[in-house]
Amino acid sequence: MSEWQAIAGLKIAIDGPSGSGKGTVAKLLAQEIGLTVLDTGLLYRLTAAVALDQGLDLKDELAVAAMVNDMLANLTWSSAGIRYQDEEWADRLRTEAVGAAASTVAAMPKVREGLLSLQQQLACAGCIMDGRDIGTVVLADAPAKFFLTASIRERARRRWTQLKGLGHADDLDAVLLDLKKRDQRDRERQHAPLVQAVDAIAIDSTTLRVDEVVDRMLGILARRELIKAVL
Ligand code: DC
Q1: Where along the chain do its domains lie?
Q2: Were both Cys, which of 32, 68, 70, 109 would link to 191 (CB 3.0–4.6 Å)?
Q3: Does position 1 have pLDDT exceeding 70, yes or no?
């Protein structure tokens, strides 16, 4: 039994760059307050992986956007992961190659538009949603928004440790370079770039443990009466 309970229908947006710890923090916070988590990165990663599987040109926005429409008809996305054509895809979407391709398709306005209403529909019942444009676009009306950051070195170190754990050997400098490129693409794109929402609270996790970040969030949510202590 968690010590805290979110008020009914609560939506929490968590945005930040790759490696800022959004996913880990979102899962722990969700357990603490009894909400589900939706990782929107999975949608962009699946889009990239299916486009690559189908041999589409990743520069051809119209072709990728048309593929997204078909993909949505065969997709189940939940806190448990993402299923496409009756197969679980989440694990095979975690590679660097898919991540880099995801950031390319994520820069396409028609792809983002195609994925928007599914995200908004699933959030209706209340959830923690993590991504890049959740506080600014997808859940612009969320009563709680966090923007997680960490230094580029620390983010690269975390990503590298994660990749090693998955058996993908890569050197730290290559991971750092890849992160820099991805940051630049995510921040500089014209449509829904990675930017802190004006009403989001920034938390720098460079020197904080995950539980310390979550404690800060719990304090803020409790002060705003968005979560209640369970007696
Ligand atoms: O969070 P992630 O690494 O799984 O995201 C993969 C890519 O998708 C990343 O380059 C940014 C993009 N993305 C996005 O543009 N908007 C989101 N809401 C989520 C992810």
Answers
A1: 4-229
A2: 109
A3: no
Signed CA dihedral, 108, 114, 115, 117: sign only = positive
The residue nearest atom 4 of ligand 1, judged by CA position, is 41
What lies within 8 Å, CB to CB, of 36 at 6+ separation is 30, 78, 79, 127, 128
Phi-psi region of 203 (alpha: psi -120 to 50; beta: other; left: phi over 0): beta
User: What's the pLDDT tens digit per position in 94-116?
Assistant: 888 898 899 899 999 999 999 99
Identify the sign of the CA torsion 168, 172, 176, 181: negative
Q: What are phi and psi of 97, to 5 degrees?
A: -60, -45
Nearest residue to 47 (alpha-carbon basis) of 37, 60, 34, 35: 60
pLDDT digits (tens, 9 = 90+) for 4-14: 999 999 999 99
DSSP 8-state symbol, 226: S
Q: What is the pTM of this model?
A: 0.95
Residue 101, CA distances (Å) to 166, 197, 212 in order: 19, 25, 33
- CA of 106, closest atom in ligand 1: 15
The tokens describing 208, both together, are: 């904080």
Our answer on whether the CB atom of 16 is closer than 6 Å to any ligand 1 atom is no
* Residue located nearest, by CA, to atom 16 of ligand 1: 132
Quick check: CB of 119 below 6 Å from ligand 1?
no
Which amino acid residue places its CA nearest to atom 20 of ligand 1?
Answer: 41
Q: How far apart are CA 116 and CA 99, in angstroms?
A: 19
**CB of 45 sitting under 6 A from ligand 1:** yes
- According to CATH, what is the number of the domain 4-229? 3.40.50.300
